[in-house]
Write the structure tokens for this entry.
Amino acid sequence: MNLRLFLSIGILGAAGLQVLAAQNAMAQTAKPSAFSLDFAVTYNAQSTNIDTSNRFWMQGGSAQLHGQLWRSLGVVADVAETHTANMHSSSAGLDLVTTTFGPRYTWQLPHKKLSVYGQFLAGEVWGLHSTFPASGGIESSENGASVLAGGGANLRLNRYLSWRAVEANWLYTHLPNATNQSENSLRLGTGLVIRIP
């Protein structure tokens, strides 16, 4: 397993421990039902670019840990990896690993089966196994800042399992490229959400 991906998963686990600690702290002042914790695994398709005109598709997945802390407000940690073997008909591939963290607001619709959410997360991106322009020539890996903003919808299947019908996010990454050193992507996902009792 790639060391950076392993570290990213560790960050996600640490965020989960922080959420659990917050649950224990809130248990004395809030009703037990005020807090919930869930874990989601999604398949992602991502339309991205390395300059202002050429776009290409990447595929991968993500893992998210979400803690509903107070009413509809929660926090989420997201670790995602996407891959392409061929950036817009070139011979170069690209792996992107993003780790982001931030707030999520969830609206529970009246019939209780469907919930929708919006989120704004920030963190870091690693570009791997590719070609990045650098002052000394070409680098095979780089890292930079990332922002993930968007939302999605979950359909509850039973008490502990939901289907993430759709998740759509704008993903901004700041990595070296041949033009403006920034990339704008559309990340679409679907998957399963497991509620942790």
The longest strand covers residues 55-70. The chain has one domain: 3-196. The first helix runs from residue 3 to 26.
